[in-house]
């Protein structure tokens, strides 16, 4: 007993992306929460492309963990191992837990400090501003949105988008692909489908690129938006949870979002094997379910009362510049200013900031 009250249970959250940040925020007054993340900040991930054309936008999209997570402990380090009661960190700490939530998402090579990440965006912006022509390789969400951001903010620049598939945005339906292609072409973006560039043959400072179809493209600036991002689960392969990883390296979870076979270990976000498109707003939903279940378990509630999660129907909004977008909803696909009103102006940054208790507008 401490101060007449039972000591709070320790919840360790590994990963400070969307899911981990929201879970730490939700649990901070109900448990002794430790957030482990290699960065000192939470980054709203879908805002990064706007930040490349407008670096000041990143001031609101990069949020120090200590700004929203005010009643817990932040450990700025990589988790490198776990036992059934402890997490081991790269900086030599051993952190005990009663409950563990794994939310390590993807292993993106981003800087540790917020200051350095802001500087990265300024450098990318200088690169764009000093170029008269831009080549983007990859026609997924990142490639399409980056082409849209540059075409909208720098209409005088020649933008070329190369994609090796038969259509853009192949992870969603063809109607959305066609609407995005039509919009890009209306902004003078040259789109080359079913072509690729040998990335291994590119040398630093190269200005002329040859596609697989033999077409030569001159560009001052190159952005590569292809290639699979490595999952942030490699470190788990050397732990007792290695048998809980599927063939893709994702953690297998049950309907309560506990790692299968584990009563006190949860997983949320991109690292899970839930069959749905991996999107930030779904990671938030995962966090809400896990927070509810953690509170129930810590209060001694019955397992039969645990909240469950069902995979979501596909709902994707792809920004096209600052005013338009294409949205694929469960029963229809729409493009233009209407979906743009929901996402493209602010990219949900104000809404996200409000969701973690911060002023939507303030830096």
TrEMBL record:
Species of the source: Elaeis guineensis var. tenera (Oil palm)
Biological function: Putative FAD-dependent oxidoreductase.
Keyword line: FAD, Flavoprotein, Oxidoreductase
One of the Pfam families matching this protein, by short name: Pyr_redox_2
Keyword Ribonucleoprotein part of the UniProt annotation: no
Family stated for the protein in its record: Belongs to the FAD-dependent oxidoreductase family.
Lineage: Eukaryota, Viridiplantae, Streptophyta, Embryophyta, Tracheophyta
Stated name of the protein: Apoptosis-inducing factor homolog B
GO molecular function ontology, one term from the record: flavin adenine dinucleotide binding
Gene for this chain: LOC105050394
Matches recorded under PANTHER family: APOPTOSIS-INDUCING FACTOR 1 (PTHR43735), FERROPTOSIS SUPPRESSOR PROTEIN 1 (PTHR43735:SF3)
Coiled coil stretches, renumbered: none
Keyword Oxidoreductase attributed: yes
Gene3D superfamilies: 3.50.50.100
One GO cellular component term noted in the UniProt record for this chain: cytoplasm
Domain FAD/NAD(P)-binding per the UniProt entry, residue ranges: 10-287
